[in-house]
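Researcher: Structure prediction, please.
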Amino acid sequence: MLIRFRHLAVITTFALLACGLAGCGTINEKIAAGVSDSIPHWVGGLPRDAPPRPGTAKYDEFMKERERKRLEPAPAKDEAAKPSAASSGLDAVH
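Model: Predicted structure follows.
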């Protein structure tokens, strides 16, 4: 069967349209966001410790927890961890 130039042009046009449509991730940003969230980390998706997306219930909980931790007083410095002045230096050689 002879392939005519017109058939080749139609097939090429449809192939280019299909590739363009498949490669466009901005057609619907909700679909793009959902698909990108489902990609595993080892393939190049979001890391496990990434915060949730803004506008979700989990994001509100994350921000409340973050604010609670920010307002929490800093832990007291442990005085026992510091070396004493009497046991260091030349005084310790006696």
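Model: The longest helix spans residues 5-23.
Researcher: Thanks, that helps.
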